[in-house]
Amino acid sequence: MSITRRDFLKIAAVTGGVAVAGTPVVKSVLALGKKPVSLPQYVPTTCEMCFWRCGVIAKVVDGKVVKLDGNPIHPNSRGKLCARGHGGIGLLYDPDRLKTPLINTGSRGEGKFKKVSWDEALGYVADKMEKIKEKYGAESIALLTHGTISTYFIHLLQAFGSPNFAFPSFALCRGARDTAFEITFGEAVGNPERVDIQNSKVIVLIGSHLGENAHNSQCQEFAEAVGKGAIVIVVDPRFSTAAGKAKYWLPIKPATDLALLLSWINVIINEGLYDKEYVAKYTVGFNEVASAVKEYTPEWAEKETDIPASLIIETARLMGKNKPSVLIHPGRHTAWYSDNVQRQRAVAILTALLGAYGRPGGIYLNPKKKLEPVFLSDKDYPDHQKPEIHKGNYPFAGEEGLTHAIVKTTLTEQPYPIKGWFTTGINIIKAMPNQRDTLKAIQKLELLVAVDMMPYDGVILADVVLPECTYLERHDDLFTVKERAFGISIRQPVVQPMYDTKPGWWIAKELGKRLGLEDHFPWNTFEDFLKMKCETWGIDYSELTKKGYISFPESEKPYISADNEPKFKTPSGKIELYSKELKDKGFDPVPKYTRHEQPPEGWFRLIYGRSPVHTFSRTTNNPSLWELMEENTAWVNAKVAKRKGLKNGEYIVLINQDGVKSNKVRIKITERIRPDCIYLVHGFSSTSKLLRKAYLRGADDQQLITRYDIDPIAGTVGMRVNFVKIAKEV
Amino acid sequence: MIELSITGTNAITFPHLEVWDWRIVIYLFLGGLSAGMLVMCSIANLRIPKQPVEELAQCVRAPFIAFIILSVGAQFIILDLGAPFNLYWGYLTFQPLSLMSWGTWGVPAVLFANALYILAVIPNEQRHRLRFPFLIKISEKLVPKMRPIAKLNFAMGIFLGIYTGVLLSSFAAIPLWNNATLSILFLVSALSSGAAMIVIIAKKAEIKFLFTKIDIWLIVAELVVIALFFYGLYTSTAPYKRAIEPFFSLTSEHFIFTIALISIFLLLPLALRIKLGELKEFEDGFHGEFTRAQIFRMNFAAILVLTGTLILRAAIVYAGQLTKLSFY
Amino acid sequence: MPRYVMVIDVERCIGCMACVIACKKENGVADGYFRTRVVEEVRGEFPYLRMEQRSELCNHCEIAPCIDACPTRASHRAKDGTVQIEKKKCIGCKACILACPYDARYSTPEGVADKCSFCEHRLKEGKSPACVETCLGHSRIFGDLDDPNSEVSQLIKKYDASVRLEFAGTRPRVFYINKKFAGGL
Ligand SMILES: Nc1nc2c(c(=O)[nH]1)N[C@H]1C(S)=C(S)[C@@H](COP(=O)(O)OP(=O)(O)OC[C@H]3O[C@@H](n4cnc5c(=O)[nH]c(N)nc54)[C@H](O)[C@@H]3O)O[C@H]1N2
Ligand SMILES: Nc1nc2c(c(=O)[nH]1)N[C@H]1C(S)=C(S)[C@@H](COP(=O)(O)OP(=O)(O)OC[C@H]3O[C@@H](n4cnc5c(=O)[nH]c(N)nc54)[C@H](O)[C@@H]3O)O[C@H]1N2
Ligand code: SF4
Ligand code: SF4
Ligand code: SF4
Ligand code: SF4
Ligand code: SF4
Ligand SMILES: [Mo]
């Protein structure tokens, strides 16, 4: 017997796309007297439980979503969903959802809200915005945003006249990696990362904790590679899930990864293990790199990293031997220390030396497809009067902006005050380091608006709360997927919005109307806009709604070949092992090692990561996911725990170097972590009483991250620089 | 060290089983007790073979009380059922390998035999209390059959007594329970509690004395079987050895089982001593009447026995669910 | 009739828990209850560690003590050889829960016994079980052992497949393979 996923597709193709219509009911003469059976409907859409954005097919029975499945034709899901994707139902039916617009009646942060109508809420916001604009200028309104809703609110903000927005996804996430790859290869490594894991012979994961980082198709490929016998090398102070699959686990002393990378480069160059032809043909600056890494011998690195020199050499030789099918994973959350970009540069350089960029098992090339941009409106944005502040003074800061630049300007009012914040799809308390600064900054505001689905920590601080409906209840902009082939994915409502909630586009448009910006929203419904967009792109909209995903297979050109020569959009047109651009701006053109402070005796470095069943803070109240992990635990090395007389599972408190005390958290006593670190899964211990499941459950890593470094190159943040000690819970 | 973390567990089975609770303990205790009583009173009734049937009824109230005890006991298992309304399905089939099925059919069967017994031994002068004429008629018809009925009840009592043990020992997945000694242990302790109960309820001095004597042997047997039970598990393979750990553990969570074991080994020998003392007192023959102090002592010893039996069952039911075949 | 079995390739399980929740949604399992779980077992001392992650579920044993324990035939062997529970016959005596050496069963809030059904309803539609379909690691593999060409047959033949608690003698139909150690040791 063979069971295929195709069967499912058949059903999907027949019934898909009839979103939100009345549920068909089977009535038959034979079924007389029996209760009529409702036929399930299958509606394709796109997941937003994280930013991988898998294709989903929702099974709807009697207007209720009963199951979410992966769309087989979507390359990010391939017929499967991760735990969080399946848990989307929990978000939809979470009884603690925001249900109506709210206006704060107490002081900021007090959390006293009154329910108001949309008209009143939007009127209030528009009125305040106009006032701030009059008093300080439109630039004094800033936007902190994440997720699909950003599209509409950046548009609104720019139409209003402010350039100041920031995503956590740059400074706090993948900014350093993207910058380093842009400097080296002329383009970022993409999202999904263009990693050809399933064909890799050697996979090097530096911190990347696949399995716990549950990015769907990447995990699938990782398991596939493991199954095929790929050699996995994991560099992590903690024995991660991935380390459990690895041949080599290198439990590195935190903050010393650059030393390891440089000495790997040293060995690979010294032993002539690099891809000579590739290096000669596609790169510049080999000699500079070779002489720069001379001092970084494995013996030297052993002292820095705690990893035996012999292992450094052995692993380097494995990479050399298996080149170019070696994936040095570029990572994603790379906001670790003050030298993020240089560390990621070393990753990029190593990748290039092994000839792995554009080669099977390394990093595949972007699909070749150009679609003309379609804007939300043709109307130009007004020029802003004052300089933008959202990139700070960091020469390589990305277009997504720097969250800390907005916080800093709000605090210092330099070069001009920021008096209004919009926060859309971001939890400013949990995402951004140094909560005290954030809280101080918002006390300076005259308006704080939150557009969210759930009353998380940041939301209860707002003056006005505008409830967005969930991704299962709305349209959003089309997603252009750059996997091996190019494709388009649609999000469409699977059920009607529950309560008095609205889609993000509607909220932005209605607010725009009240600000006299209706020309910037020239469509009636977002579906009208999507149809127009599809028409411009020559895509059959109704096919898209039925299938959920449309692929352009001819765009797939993953590897370098005679008729697929890569173009590197760097100043030299080549892979820049040595970067003149960096040199010109006053930075090291080839990465140099800098030593970071290590925890003093009795202190531990606080490190953090993901749980496969949660996304940051946003799922901690999700009933379906909560039951898989109700709170996080503090991982403490078994010998340390023994010395301190701690018992597994008991509650402890963590106190950081600035005296900040965490909420009580259960201790997980484990051999799986170095004795000098303590590990927490990020996102827990919500401070919002409106969240009945998440409220003060576990400990919040962010609360303990009162200090952070800033990378001078791109302004990305270093959050793993805090030290904590253990106290027994009293 | 092995570190284990499991996602997706059910509270009923993790970290240990919490499937059966005090309701089953009471069911087993009361079931055993009534089984013991049936056996004991049938012994009493069958002991003196030559007397005419009418005068035979030595134990008149015992069958009645046994009936009540078993009926009450059965209520506790029904109380434990998650879906008692489906119970009729149990009577549409008989599953020979299912001890629950044996119970489903067995308990009513015992009750039926027990009812016959009651009718057969009810004294002439009390028969009018049966109220319904047809019962009185049946009772009159059954009197001459008292002997075979007593034999039947003896058998039923043994069955029920063993059943309470086999019910537990049939679970191969539960090392503490899964051995034949447990059935013997439960049978012996059921008989012993039955004897003790008869000592308490009996009015006639000679009956009290008779069952005191019987109980001595049963207690001795019980103590030996308990020791064998633990020894057998101790000499067995890892999971079985692990299963008795709670009884010999001083950690706070399992201490209760050590206490249980200690109390069983205190209560039963104490009862034994008292009984031996009685025996000595009456060595030279038995004189018809007891003093109040003597009665109190007999009853006290019997209550010790009953308590010991109850603790034994509770400890075995709960401790059994702490240890599984697998190590988690 | 096919002989359905599941093979669990522990090397490929990445502990993503997708199976755990997909199973719940597919089968309408109530909050707080589970039909399948994922075990993470770590041995050794820092830094020499070994970890195994594996999913566990009802083994659909060929010699099933849970069926034997059931007084009403609610627990029974279905025609296709899988072990199933007919809810309307279940009296909730929980004997089957105690009888299962694998802790595969639980009692629903309605008081009846429940466990993994091998997604019987999906098999009837020609689909694979929900947990298998969504398994990110392709660690759960489902099929027919009577078909020598099926993936499961091939895997069981090729690698030293084992079952949990073999000494319990229940002849499970869920097999575990660990390619890393196959043939070795
Ligand atoms: N200490 C520490 N800080 C970190 C990280 C860490 O690991 N540790 N990780 C960093 C990384 S990599 C990232 S990407 C960021 C993530 O930072 P965020 O994206 O801010 O993550 P969350 O904490 O999940 O907060 C998301 C908020 O958006 C809301 N939301 C979710 N979906 C929607 C939607 O569809 N519409 C609307 N309107 N709102 C929605 C949620 O309810 C929640 O309030 O955090 C960064 N910060
Ligand atoms: N389930 C789930 N998956 C997710 C997310 C989620 O919220 N939930 N979020 C997604 C997003 S936006 C992101 S950015 C990614 C983040 O996921 P990754 O990019 O994989 O995260 P990392 O920054 O590598 O951080 C986690 C690992 O770094 C290790 N680590 C800590 N300090 C050091 C160090 O100094 N050196 C080294 N080598 N390792 C160290 C930790 O022990 C931990 O194992 O995950 C994505 N996937
Ligand atoms: S990886 Fe999981 S949560 Fe993220 S989009 Fe895909 S299914 Fe959704
Ligand atoms: S695993 Fe347990 S429930 Fe499943 S068939 Fe075997 S004994 Fe029965
Ligand atoms: S709980 Fe239900 S299925 Fe289990 S043994 Fe009892 S009647 Fe059978
Ligand atoms: S086969 Fe079906 S019922 Fe069994 S664990 Fe998998 S999803 Fe759950
Ligand atoms: S879905 Fe597959 S890989 Fe993920 S935890 Fe379950 S068995 Fe393991
Ligand atoms: Mo991120």
In a nutshell, what does this entry contain?
The complex is a heterotrimer of chains A (730), B (328) and C (185). Chain B is mostly helical and 328 residues long. Helices cover 67% and strands 2% of the residues of chain B.
Describe the protein's architecture and organization:
The complex is a heterotrimer of chains A (730), B (328) and C (185). Chain A is of the alpha/beta class. Among the domains of chain A are: 5-92, ADC-like domains (N-terminal domain of TfIIb, Single Sheet), CATH 2.20.25.90; 195-363 and 562-584, Dimethylsulfoxide Reductase, domain 2 (3-Layer(aba) Sandwich); 604-728, Barwin-like endoglucanases (Beta Barrel). Helix content of chain A is 30%, strand content 17%. Chain A is built from 24 helices and 29 strands. In chain A, strands 7-6-17-16-15-8-9 form a 7-stranded mixed beta sheet, covered by helices on one side. Chain A has a 6-stranded mixed beta sheet with strand order 23-25-24-29-22-26. Chain A is globular. Helix content of chain B is 67%, strand content 2%. Chain B has one domain (22-82, 98-320): Formate dehydrogenase/DMSO reductase domain (Formate dehydrogenase/DMSO reductase fold). With 328 residues, chain B is mainly α. Chain B has helices spanning 22-47, 53-56, 61-80, 99-121, 133-142, 146-169, 180-201, 205-234, 238-243, 255-281, 292-320, and one strand at residues 2-7. Chain C has a domain at 4-62 and 116-177: 2-Layer Sandwich (Alpha-Beta Plaits). Chain C has 6 helices and 9 strands. In chain C, the strands form 4 sheets. A 3-stranded mixed beta sheet of chain C has the order 8-1-9. In chain C, strands 2-3 form a two-stranded antiparallel ribbon. In chain C, strands 4-5 form a two-stranded antiparallel ribbon. In chain C, a hairpin with a 2-residue loop joins strand 2 and strand 3. The mean pLDDT of chain C is 95. At the A-C interface, strand 5, helix 2, helix 7, helix 8 and helix 22 of A face helix 1, strand 2, strand 3, helix 5 and strand 8 of C. One iron/sulfur cluster (SF4) binds at residues 69-72, 74-75, 85, 90-96, 112-113 of chain C.
